[in-house]
Design goal:
The complex is a heterodimer of chains A (about 400) and B (about 150). Chain A is α+β, with helices and mostly antiparallel strands and about 400 residues long. Chain A has 14 helices and 13 strands. In chain A, strands 1, 2, 3, 4, 5, 9, 10, 11, 12 and 13 form a 10-stranded mixed sheet that branches. In chain A, strands 7-8 form a two-stranded antiparallel ribbon. The two termini of chain A are about 10 Å apart. The chains are: A alpha+beta (about 400), B mainly beta (about 150).
Chain lengths: ~400, ~150
């Protein structure tokens, strides 16, 4: 554990959480901004606080619903924190929690909401190429060659990792099977009632090798929010606090090099972030009871779990089985709400909510006596982030 | 190195262009001459890719451009089956490869692997560049893509 005072360990907690109904892409009946408001109000209700107590906002991935408009719409008496985590994809989910927690510890704000809202019918999809007739700058090195989508951007990293370490397709498949299995217990999940078997996975079409259809996240509409406040105050509120043991963000050496030139290529980009996370949380991988690991694509989950020290790269085929990844009794219960693959692609905020639900004992795939509940946000993007929650401060 | 007249992917994909600040212009001008021209620091001779305004190794702003042999080693690959752009409907599957250039400090380039997209590919295979000329049209200037081909017998 870090011995000085420069950590947020145990000083902040998630005190409230909520989501709207989760929809298939383009099927939300409400506009994106309205869904953001609904999730925030519901999260405040879950925490047992009045909405007007919210005084800060933190989000990520260029969320379109800015804090000033939210605070104005909600009639908040004052706004003390308006924060955006730079970087695209889901890399900023835990980072937004980190920023909110730091702001609370620093005294900038007292009650900060971390939120994300997505209505792709209103604003267009992630998984499609641009319609522009010219690609400039870094995009010129990829788009003219038909490398345009997130799946295509990450497949070669995963392929190289699989080549270097003898990783089999079955290891990727196990991640998908676990998510779908957990989603069958979760009525909120978009894929609730849609079972996935090895056979269905194996027969599903390739999107881009080595990703089958079921290796790829969904695209969805909806909104989600969590309320953070000081640990002291959280103890007096309605719910069991999910204490923040640590939250960390960052990126490894030259991971932003364009045209796929990151010197360490076959990586999820957690190699420098994970050790700092563990040091600040005062835990080791063996202490983690349940893990939510962001799935843009299953291969990134695998590399992320390796880089967080749960197994050696060459041991992935042994760890990544449905049995090991299943709640409640697996070695490493993974993505217990169904996550981005099968609950909802809420850019990973649904993973943070699920991590808090595990601490509260309220998951639909509850791990018995879960205490240390970890989240990894955004493998293979730059930057990435991590979060460790706990029920007991120990 | 061979010149090809037909393109690997169908027409309609975005054409490449340098950023408005001109950072990548020497590369795209080089491809028009069928030369592989990449960034190298004039002070410490470190190769750098993609281009940047400063050398990441010695922080010099004195960056130069140098022609390198149009050959490399296949570093990774992906076979694409789902078209994310309407133009790609007509060419599925297709191959995208990442090529490492041992003659240029192991920088890497993305391109297509010409030939049968369903043929087996091997990481580590020797490849050579194929300069693929495009006429442009409308407000798009003529441009040249750098594709790759497995060196037979490698």
């Amino acid at each position: 554990m870090a011995t000085d005072e420069r950590t947020i360990r145990g000083k902040v907690a998630i005190a409230g959480l909520a989501e709207t109904t989760y929809y298939k892409r383009g099927q939300a009946t409400d506009p994106e901004f309205k869904m953001a408001l609904q999730a925030i109000i519901a999260a405040a209700g879950d925490a047992g606080i009045d909405v007007t107590e919210i005084d800060g906002f933190a989000s990520y991935s260029n969320d379109r619903n800015d804090p000033v408009r939210l605070a104005t719409a909600l009639g908040l008496p004052q706004l003390k924190l308006s924060n955006m985590f730079w970087g695209g994809g889901g890399g900023g989910g835990s980072g937004a929690v980190a920023n909110a927690a730091a702001a609370i510890v620093a005294g900038y704000a007292d009650t900060v909401v971390v939120y994300r809202s997505l209505a792709q019918g209103q604003f267009g999809r992630f998984g499609q190429g641009s319609g522009a007739n010219v690609a400039r700058g870094a995009g010129a090195f990829t788009s003219p060659y038909g490398l345009m989508s997130p799946a295509q951007s990450f497949a070669m990293r995963v392929r190289r990792f699989m080549h270097d370490h003898g990783t089999e397709q079955a290891a990727l498949r196990a991640i998908s099977l676990a998510s779908y299995q957990h989603a069958q217990h979760n009525p909120r999940a978009v894929m609730h009632g849609r079972e996935l078997t090895e056979e269905i996975y194996d027969n599903s079409r390739w999107i881009v090798e080595p990703f089958h259809l079921f290796d790829c996240c969904m695209e969805n509409d909806g909104a989600a929010a969590v309320i953070l406040t000081s640990a002291e105050r959280a103890r007096d509120l309605k719910q069991t606090p999910a204490y923040v043991l640590a939250a960390m963000q960052g990126s490894d050496y030259r991971q932003g090099a364009t045209a796929h030139n990151a010197p360490d290529y076959a990586t999820s980009n957690f190699k420098t972030v994970a050790p700092r996370l563990y040091e600040h949380a005062g835990i080791t991988p063996g202490d983690v009871d349940v893990l939510q690991s962001y799935e843009n694509f299953t291969g990134g989950v695998l590399m992320s779990i390796v880089e967080h020290g749960f197994c050696e790269p060459d041991e992935a085929n042994e760890l990544f089985t449905l049995e090991h990844l299943s709640a409640p009794d697996g070695k490493l219960p993974l993505n217990t709400s169904g996550g981005n693959l099968a609950e909802c692609y809420m850019h990973g905020l649904e993973l943070i909510i699920e991590a808090a639900r595990q601490v509260r004992g309220e998951s639909t795939s509850q791990v018995h006596d879960a205490n240390i509940s970890m989240v990894g946000s955004g493998p293979m993007v730059q930057p990435v982030s991590d979060l460790v929650l706990a029920r007991d401060l120990g | 190195m061979t010149d090809e007249t037909s393109s690997y992917l169908p027409a309609g994909l975005p054409a490449p262009a340098a950023n408005v600040d001109g950072l990548e212009s020497p590369f795209w001008e080089g491809t028009r001459r069928h030369e592989l021209v990449v960034q190298r620091c004039n002070d410490c001779e470190t190769y750098q890719w993609g281009p940047e305004w400063i050398c990441h190794h010695c922080r010099s702003f004195d960056l130069g451009w140098t022609e390198v042999p149009p050959r490399g080693v296949l570093y990774s690959w992906e076979r694409v089956w789902y078209p994310v752009h309407p133009a790609l409907q007509a060419k599925l599957p297709y191959m995208v490869v990442l090529v490492e250039l041992p003659d240029a400090g192991n920088i890497r380039m993305v391109g297509n692997l010409v030939g049968d997209a369903e043929a087996e590919v091997e990481i580590g295979a020797a490849v050579e560049a194929v300069f693929e000329d495009h006429e442009g049209g409308g407000d798009v200037e003529p441009y040249t893509l750098v594709q790759w081909r497995v060196v037979e017998g490698s």
